[in-house]
Amino acid sequence: MRRLLALAVALSACAHYEDRVRDVAVQLAPADERVIHGDSHFSAEERAAFERALGAWAGFTRGAVRLSVRWDLTDMTYMDLPPPLLYRVWATPETGDMGGRTEGELIWWVPDTCTDLQACAMHEVGHMLGLQHVPYAGHVMSPRNPVHVFGPADFRECVRVGVCRERSPDYTTVTVTVDPNMPNPSLEYPP
User: Does any domain span residue 191?
Assistant: First the structure.
C-alpha cells in the first residue's frame, strides 16, 4: 500500500512539473520565427552583415523575433520558395541612393548604396516586421542614414506594432524591521 501511495505522489509531482515546464516554454516561445530565403548573388560580406542584422533584432526583441536566412534563392527557385524572400538589387538610376525597399515579406536590398551594410539590413528587416520610419536621426528606422544601434523611438515603434513587449519596471522590495526597545540611531557617525 505504501509503495502504491508513493508511486501516486511521484506521478502527480511529475505531471505538475511537466505542466510548469510547458507553461515556461509557451512564455519563452518566439512570437515570430521565420526563415528568410536569401538571394545567392549576395557576397560573403553582405551575407554576414544581413545575418548580424537578424541577430540584432533577436536581441532587441528579447527573443520574440527569431529570424534566420537560407541563401537558396536562385533564378531557378524563386517561384518555388515561400516568403519571406530577400532579393539583391543592383544600384540603378531608379533605385537612387535608397538602401532597399520592402513590401510585406519581400525585401529588395541594394547593398551597393549602403555605407553601413548592417544598418541598411536592420532597417529593411524592421519594415518586414511592420515598423514604419521614425522622424529622428540616429535610429535604425530613420529614413536617411540609419544606424545599427536601436534608439528609444525604434522601441516605441516596435511596441506599437506588437513586435516588442513593453518592459516592466524593476521593483526592489525592502523590508525594515524596527525594534521598539532599540534607541534611535544617531545622525552623527561615529558618535
Answer: no
